[in-house]
Amino acid sequence: MSRTIVVDEVTVAYGSGEPVLTGVSARATPGQVLAVTGPSGAGKTTLLWTMAGLLRPSAGSVTVDGEQIRDRDFAVAQQVVLVPQDNGLAAILTAAENVQVALIAGGVTPPEARRRTAESLERLGLSGQTDQLVEELSGGQQQRTAIARGLALHGDVLLADEVTSELDASNRQKVIDLLREEAFRGAAVVFATHDPEAAAACDAELHLVDGRAEVVRGPSPVGH
Ligand SMILES: Nc1ncnc2c1ncn2[C@@H]1O[C@H](COP(=O)(O)OP(=O)(O)OP(=O)(O)O)[C@@H](O)[C@H]1O
């Protein structure tokens, strides 16, 4: 199944602070990769967390196929997968265990979880690191493990937050190709990045400056 995620005039603040996103709209559709760009602090992570149901907007809405996302549980049920910027891995588990735990928590049977884990780590070039503890992996290997976990979940919406920041040029290209493959599979992919070349290769771009959408390349964000 494929799903469209729509961000409609969203305003988000942390606690009682000033909004860090103001009236931002975006649309990610199946088969496409949407780049979210902008300088450090512009609000890219905040936008992805809001799309993942981890932050609640004070105005506007995020919907998946018309259903409003109110919290993370609902987003998970809608197959919205987040690969976070800080990788979110358990340091004292192995690379494979990190992927398998996520799959089993998502209702995948253990044999299928083992199969998908091996396949996904292999796609990221990590077959040799399967049984290594995450804390023993390099920063780039950890980042690729987090991506492997995200891909193994086979989400309908894949939110990838700065997932190439620690990678060398060849791994960076490999990950961009994998995001493209996810879109080809039918996922709606959102990729927050500082890399203008990577963004240029995406189907659409939302550029944030100080929490506002300044330049939008690609389809109309909310279809009106
Ligand atoms: N937990 C938090 N509490 C309060 N303010 C926060 C919190 N997280 C982020 N912010 C603020 O929200 C704004 C947007 O931050 P965000 O992390 O979304 O930006 P970003 O574009 O992802 O930056 P970077 O490229 O550096 O990752 C910044 O001003 C930041 O200081």
Automatic annotation (TrEMBL):
Species name: Asanoa siamensis
Record family assignment: Belongs to the ABC transporter superfamily.
A GO term for molecular function: ATP binding
Name the record gives this protein: ABC transporter ATP-binding protein
SMART domains registered for this protein in UniProt: AAA
PANTHER family (UniProt xref): IMPORT ATP-BINDING PROTEIN, LIPOPROTEIN-RELEASING SYSTEM ATP-BINDING PROTEIN LOLD
All residue ranges annotated as the ABC transporter domain in the record: 5-224
InterPro entries: AAA+_ATPase, ABC_transporter-like_ATP-bd, ABC_transpr_LolD-like, P-loop_NTPase
PROSITE patterns recorded: ABC_TRANSPORTER_2
SUPFAM superfamilies hit by this protein: P-loop containing nucleoside triphosphate hydrolases
Keyword annotations: ATP-binding, Nucleotide-binding
